[in-house]
Design brief:
Layout lengths: L1 H20 L4 H13 E7 L5 E8 L2 H15 L3 H15 L4 E15 L8 E5 L2 E3 L3 E2 L7 E12 L14 E8 L10 E8 L1 H5 L5 H47 L2
Antiparallel strand pairs: 1-2, 2-3, 3-7, 4-5, 4-8, 6-7, 8-9
Helix pairs in contact: 2-3, 3-4, 4-6
């Protein structure tokens, strides 16, 4: 888990540094336009001037593709280097399994207490509510000033393996107002209208194929375990049936 967090932090930091270092070039403007499309901000202020601001960015195929192309242009990467960077970026975020959302918070005023954070936040995919599968544990710590991190939600049905987003629908991120003493009541909501291919975060190229193979291998491993369990249960039932039949024959033969 710690290695995964380090990988995520490295790639997110690289993205932030890129946005700082690039000037007013066409590539930078294209990146900013995409970021604005998939980023939502909510801000609250009380009568004493205290404030709480949160920015939520949904990682989508469009966002990631723009970021990857910008990085490739800046670093003069070859096609192979681009695909390798893209694969490691997505693998670090575990995008082949999850919907990833990046949160940036700023609490100015009394300390915000957000723990347990997984009970403060949820994602509505269509009409169904989902809790986080994982999140940056620093969100459980008291907050004054700024903090950012990632929150993950399921992208596939755990039982069937089918995508939860299979058509055009809305994603609604809901955060309990108790997350900050400035907000206290109500909810903070962020809504994105997405297509299945957008929310999946799966981009084109060999990186996407490699990630799909990774996911399918994990799914296959899980199915094999479930099959072994079912076969064991079936064998137990067969044994029980044989014992019952034997007892019936014994009783009838008396």
């Amino acid at each position: 888990m710690m290695r995964k967090k380090i990988i995520i932090a490295v790639f997110v930091l690289a993205a932030i540094l890129f946005s700082w270092m690039t000037g007013p070039t066409d590539a930078a403007s294209r990146y900013e336009a995409v970021l604005a499309r998939w980023s939502k901000t909510e801000s609250r202020r009380d009568d004493l001037g205290n404030s709480f601001t949160i920015k939520a960015t949904l990682y989508t195929a469009e966002y990631i593709e723009a970021l990857m192309q910008s990085e490739a242009e800046k670093n003069l990467w070859t096609a192979y280097e681009l695909e390798d960077y893209k694969y490691n970026f997505l693998r670090g975020l575990n995008m082949e399994e999850n919907v990833a959302i990046h949160l940036e918070m700023e609490q100015l005023g009394p300390t915000a207490h957000m723990a347990p954070f997984n009970e403060m936040i949820s994602l509505w995919i269509g009409r169904t509510r989902y809790s986080p599968t994982d999140y940056d544990q620093r969100f459980n710590m008291p907050l004054q000033g700024k903090r950012d991190g990632l929150v993950f939600f399921p992208r596939f049905n755990d039982r069937t393996g089918q995508p939860l987003i299979d058509r055009s629908m809305s994603l609604r991120l809901v955060i309990n107002g108790a997350v900050s003493p400035v907000v206290m009541s109500g909810e903070l909501r962020f809504i994105w209208d997405v297509q299945a291919q957008d929310a999946a975060g799966v981009v084109s190229g060999s990186a996407a194929d490699r990630l799909e193979v990774d996911r399918l291998l994990r799914r296959l491993e899980r199915l094999n375990v479930e099959r072994a369990q079912l076969e064991s249960e079936l064998e137990a039932k067969r044994h029980e049936i044989a014992e019952i039949n034997a007892r019936i024959e014994e009783l009838q033969g008396r």
